[in-house]
Amino acid sequence: MRIVSLLASATEIVCELGLEDALVGISHECDHPPRVLDRPRVSRSRFDPEGLTSGEIDRAVRRAMAEHGSVYVVDGEKLARLEPDLVLTQAVCEVCAVPTPGVREVVRERGLGAEVLSLDAHTMEDILDSVQEVGGAAGVPDRARAVRERLAGRLDAVGAAVRGAARPDVLAVEWLDPPFAPGHWVPEMVRMAGGRNLAGQEGAPSRQVAWEELSGLDPDVLVVMPCGYGLGASRREADEHAARLLDVAPRAVSGGRAFVVDGSSYFNRSGPRAVAGVEILAGLLHPGRFREPPEDAAAAWEPEAAARG
Question: What is the CA radius of gyration of the chain?
Fold first, then answer.
């Protein structure tokens, strides 16, 4: 079995299943686990996001979509050289990762006999199902079933820990320029962690909103989780938009319940670490009932004094 993963979360699933030796190619966005990052990169972005602000990235994405219909390019020649039996991709978000239609076109044009498996998760249950889908396609269904049960058991443990606790109102922000309310599995993650999500719908796409739409929500807890950003970048984004965040979440900020998190690793991807994301949220929302999140995954956020003025 030779596997090419064009989706960061799929790469994590492959490794969770113990199939890293079968992984012969990965996407330009794959960054975990470190032991497979020496694999050939089979895709690239149409623009370099390094050094760009979130607003500049948003404009570059919109321009790429308008001009090319896609943000990413698959290296068909490299894909053909790797001779994959299975190619993993997705059709949930054209902006987040290489979309399925383009991959199918490249496979067809190159005359490859590879199976193209699209992992189209919209809920936490879908994410767990994806583990079994990959395991089935790769010939390890029993192993996949065991991994799925282990991940589901961790979610059950969170549910047991927060059961009966008062649910704080939570505002999660997935992008800041322009602001986006989270969708797909993230609002569900908030609920599973014992919170009440104020913006964004479970199982539906993330949605661009106006700051004015968020003004007045005044949540108990604010969580800043920009898509594709690690903890440090999330903090910088929160600092850059501190005045806006203060306006929409004054009680959370003044009460020390505003947080920045590693969105890229634990919230934006439909992979196994989304389960850790639920655990992280439970620790933030219910510190007396669930363990504190790792320091490299989440941190309290307090704006600069200048922003308060």
Answer: 20
Contact 87, 103 (CB under 8 A): yes
In the predicted model, is pLDDT for residue 231 greater than 80?
yes
Could you give the count of Cα atoms lying within 13 Å of 303 in the half-sphere of its Cβ? 24
* pLDDT interval class at 306 (50, 70, 90): very low
Structure letter (DSSP) for residue 99 = B
Q: How far is CA 180 from CA 6, 34, 175, 193, 199, in A?
A: 25, 30, 5, 21, 9
Q: In terms of DSSP H, where are the helices of 87-140?
A: 100-109, 124-137
Whole-angstrom distance, CA of residue 98 vs CA of residue 56:
20
What lies within 8 Å, CB to CB, of 54 at 6+ separation is 175, 176, 177, 226, 237, 240
30-64 residue pLDDT tens = 999 999 999 999 988 766 777 778 788 778 767 76
48 or 123, which is more confident: 123
Domains in the chain, start-ordered, CATH in brackets?
3-120 (3.40.50.1980), 166-308 (3.40.50.1980)
Q: How many helices (H) and strands (E) does the chain have?
A: 14, 14
Q: What is the pTM of this model?
A: 0.91
Q: What is the rounded CA–CA span in Å between residue 28 and residue 14? A: 16
Per-residue pLDDT reduced to its tens digit, 157-205: 999 999 999 999 999 999 999 999 999 999 999 999 999 999 999 999 9
Contacts of 97 (CB under 8 A, 6+ apart): 6, 7, 8, 27, 29, 72, 89, 90
Those residues with Cβ within 8 angstroms of residue 145's Cβ, 6 or more apart along the chain or in another chain: 132, 135
